[in-house]
Every structure is written in structure tokens, then in C-alpha cells.
Amino acid sequence: MKIRLFTFPNLLTLANLVCGVLAILFALRYDNLPAAFLAIVVAAVFDFCDGFAARLLKQYSELGVQLDSLSDIVSFGVAPASVLFVLYNQAEPWAGTNPALSDGLGHLVWIVAAFSSLRLAKFNIDQTQHTEFVGLPTPANALLIASLGALVATGTLSLARIPILVLALLLSWLLISPIRMFSLKFNGFGWRGNELRYSFLLGSVLLLILFRTAGVPWIIALYIVVSTIRFTLQSLRRKQESKN
What angle do CA 83, 158, 95 make, to 5 degrees? Predict the structure, then answer.
């Protein structure tokens, strides 16, 4: 069987991977969290474009599926965990705590990379995630973390070590949670059936215009909250229907 390595979608996926590696390098080697954020944003753009290109050109392949997951583990798993690790080490040690213990606990943030891998592996075998997601998508998680890193680096935000650890644990749970989160795959271009997607995109654009980088965490937080409310209401509706 002949395997085509360098299709256009695969090249876009490799570009995603390269951006992820650059994000890790910017974070761990140069402590440049704004650059790491930019690299993850570009990786997310390539991640969106490779799937779009595969559908448009009808160049689907098992190789592309595997390559996409491997690239996403780097760009949206290891890269954001690297940002959290740098943020933790830059934050003030816990008052009244053994410095060695305080520093050692920082390694817990790498759990984000592990749970991102679990999230991606689950996505590959879960046939119910074609129109929506189960758990927080890894690109959204990575953008949230990377944007917080950029905001801390520019002095817009301050994060202590305990909130960083709590954030790492909370996001790790959200990645593999049962909460069904809406996707931005549109059902045509009409309003009907796409009301939530259009409303979310409009709100996101407004937040970016008003707050720029500071708007990114609010966009991801809004996505999580709206998806959670939607999932809760749907679950309650199904329970009510089963009783009737």
C-alpha cells in the first residue's frame, strides 16, 4: 500500500507541530510567554485549516489522523503545560513552606500534558464527537493557559502558585469530563440550527476587540460555562422525558 506523506493537509498538520515545538522552546528556553502564546495561536489556526483542507480536497487518510493527534499532543498538551511550569516557577514560593517542597509541587502542572493526551486518544475512538465534543477541547485549553501566561508576562495579571496548581487540576478534569461541549462546525450558513455558534462567535469577536489578549481567557471561560449550562439542561430534559 502506497502511503502519501506530504499531502497539503499533512503539511498543515506538520506546521501545527512546528509551532507547538516553538511554543515549548519560547517558554522553557527563553521565558518568552507572549511568544509562546502567539505560537500556540498559530498552531490552532493550522489545526483548524488541516481538517478543513482534508474535507475540501477529499484527502482523508489514517496517516493524517495519527499525525494530527501527535501534533496536537505537542501543541496543545506539552506546550501549555510548559507555560504553566514557567508560570509556577516565576511565582513567589509559598509563605512558611519548605522551598524544596514548594518548588517540587510545580511538577504537578505536567498533568495537563498527560490529560490532554487522554483527551485526544478518547476523541480518536469516540464516534459520538462528530458534531460536539465530550470534555474541553485541547486547543481551547491550550489557548486559555497560553493567554494567561502572556497576560502575566506583560504585567496585566498576577498568579500565585496555589491558583496555578488548582487551575492545572481543574483543566485536567475538564479535558476528560463527561460535559458535552458545542463545536463550531456549522450546519450550513443559515441562522437556524447555528444560533449558538453565531452568538458565541459574535461575543468572542467583541471580547477580542474590547480586551485583545485579555479577552481570550474570557472567551474560553464563556465557552465552558455555556457548554456546561447547555449540557445540564439537556441532561435534565432527557431525565424528564424518560420519566414521562
Answer: 95
DSSP 3-state of 92: coil
**Single-letter residue type at 206:** L
| pLDDT at site 1 | 55
Is residue 192 included in any domain, yes or no?
no
| Residue 226 lies inside a defined structural domain of this protein | no
Q: Which amino acid is at 59?
A: Q
Among residues 203, 220, 79, the alpha carbon closest in space to that of 140 is found at 220
C-alpha cell recorded at residue 230: 447547555
Q: And the C-alpha cell for 201?
A: 462567535
How far apart, in whole angstroms, are the C-alpha atoms of residue 105 and residue 108? 6
What domain count does the chain have?
1
Q: Which domain holds residue 77?
A: 8-180
User: Could you give the 3-state DSSP secondary structure of residue 38?
Assistant: helix
Is the pTM higher than 0.85? The answer reads yes
Coil, helix or strand at residue 183: coil
